[in-house]
């Protein structure tokens, strides 16, 4: 596989270990530090949200009073096969056009409109910072990946420098948005006519990839939502509380590292439990890290997959299965939905300094205890995890016991001959 990221050390032998919340970067401590990028190109920041009000408020705050900042806002109208493009700066709306798309999807919007429009804005001497406000419920990773490729020398966006991937979230609704089963279609923010994604899936992906997470609402009024942000966002990301405090300078002074962004979003690089911080009164959030060098037994995994993989949780990581020892498998769950699949082979997996990654199971589950204190969900997950692991006795014959059996996971992981 082309990229893998390092795994954090095992804090204990207890898969339920949840150390005290940990050291996190706060933009308040670093926000005045000069960028020192030495790059004179026009800065390009990418803004992602699940809420149109948050997105428009962020755009307004970034351009008002900052004459050299321009924002490009996209909205996809899938039913009409069209894209609405709005360009705005401190003087007001400069462009408001609806353009047809070959396919009404995010990749077409980037390729057909975002790239040529960003190039045009970068060539205009009025601005030295462009903010791309993505369609509501769009994930930033695929967009930033495409823009990073286009901003290299000789490509269409070579005059632009990727500055910051920023995500804006509402602490008051974050627990519900992340953990409950609302769908983007039900909220009217689906990117396609058949968009079946859960809101939690989108929000988690935005948080995990962001360089900077900006919150609205008071952390003390939503302690569970506030700590859930820290449990999900990347360990090297920054956090800024208060949308009113966000300035274009916060975004422009940084330079996005595409490799680090990919690492944060990769199942091998999922954040573990928080550490070294006192628990906040009223915070009901938790993290459990399920890890073992032993693989899953495929039949028991299928039998208990709902116990292990569904509920009010965000779960992400990697696993291996006893009857396909070479396959590096991904685990991705949110909003009551679970997706499993293959990422390649363990033989090809390396950490960020090129060292091999040994086959293992490591799934990080984030959730929140019910307001009445009921913790059945965490207990159910732990019991299911212990049950689906292959036992030492089952592994003693080197996997021969699984030869010739029906591969019950083939509908999700593919035929074993295709899994490597």
TrEMBL record:
<dbReference type="InterPro" id="IPR027417">
    <property type="entry name" value="P-loop_NTPase"/>
</dbReference>
<feature type="compositionally biased region" description="Low complexity">
    <location>
        <begin position="1"/>
        <end position="20"/>
    </location>
</feature>
<dbReference type="InterPro" id="IPR011629">
    <property type="entry name" value="CobW-like_C"/>
</dbReference>
<dbReference type="InterPro" id="IPR051927">
    <property type="entry name" value="Zn_Chap_cDPG_Synth"/>
</dbReference>
<dbReference type="Pfam" id="PF07683">
    <property type="entry name" value="CobW_C"/>
</dbReference>
<feature type="region of interest" description="Disordered">
    <location>
        <begin position="1"/>
        <end position="36"/>
    </location>
</feature>
<protein>
    <submittedName>
        <fullName>Cobalamin biosynthesis protein CobW</fullName>
    </submittedName>
</protein>
<feature type="domain" description="CobW C-terminal">
    <location>
        <begin position="285"/>
        <end position="389"/>
    </location>
</feature>
<dbReference type="Pfam" id="PF02492">
    <property type="entry name" value="cobW"/>
</dbReference>
<dbReference type="InterPro" id="IPR003495">
    <property type="entry name" value="CobW/HypB/UreG_nucleotide-bd"/>
</dbReference>
């Amino acid at each position: 596989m082309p990229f893998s990221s390092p795994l954090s050390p095992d804090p204990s032998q207890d898969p339920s270990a949840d150390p005290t919340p940990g050291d996190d970067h706060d933009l308040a401590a670093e926000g005045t530090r000069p960028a020192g990028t030495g790059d004179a190109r026009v800065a390009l920041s990418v803004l992602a949200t699940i809420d149109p009000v948050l997105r428009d408020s962020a755009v307004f705050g970034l351009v008002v009073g900052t004459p050299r900042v321009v924002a490009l806002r996209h909205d996809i109208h899938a039913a009409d096969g069209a894209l609405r493009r709005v360009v705005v700066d401190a003087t007001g709306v400069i462009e408001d056009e609806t353009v047809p798309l070959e396919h009404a999807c995010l990749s077409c919007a980037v390729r057909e409109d975002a790239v040529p429009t960003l190039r045009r804005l970068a060539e205009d001497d009025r601005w030295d910072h462009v903010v791309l406000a993505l369609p509501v419920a769009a994930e930033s990773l695929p967009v930033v990946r495409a823009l990073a490729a286009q901003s290299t020398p000789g490509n269409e966006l070579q005059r632009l420098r990727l500055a910051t991937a920023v995500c804006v979230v509402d602490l008051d609704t974050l627990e519900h948005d992340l953990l409950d089963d609302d769908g983007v279609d039900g909220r009217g923010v689906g990117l396609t006519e058949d968009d079946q994604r859960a809101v939690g899936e989108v929000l988690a992906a935005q948080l995990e990839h962001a360089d900077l997470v900006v919150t609205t609402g008071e952390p003390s009024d939503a302690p569970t939502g506030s700590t859930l942000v820290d449990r999900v966002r990347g360990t090297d990301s920054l956090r800024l509380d208060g949308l009113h405090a966000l300035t274009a300078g916060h975004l422009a002074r940084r330079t996005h590292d595409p490799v680090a962004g990919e690492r944060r979003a990769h199942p091998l690089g999922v954040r573990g439990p928080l550490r070294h911080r006192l628990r906040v009164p009223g915070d009901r959030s938790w993290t459990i890290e399920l890890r073992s060098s032993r693989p899953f037994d495929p039949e028991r995994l299928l039998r208990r997959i709902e116990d292990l993989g569904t509920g009010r949780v965000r779960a992400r990581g990697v696993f291996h299965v006893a009857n396909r020892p070479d396959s590096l498998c991904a685990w991705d769950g949110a909003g009551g939905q679970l997706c499993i699949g293959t990422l390649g082979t363990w033989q090809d997996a390396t950490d960020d300094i090129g060292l091999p990654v040994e086959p293992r199971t490591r799934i990080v589950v984030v959730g929140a205890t019910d307001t009445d204190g009921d913790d059945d969900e965490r207990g159910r997950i732990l019991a299911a995890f212990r049950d689906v692991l292959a036992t030492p006795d089952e592994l003693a014959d080197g996997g021969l016991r699984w030869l010739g059996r029906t591969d019950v996971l083939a509908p999700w992981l593919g035929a074993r001959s295709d899994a490597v």
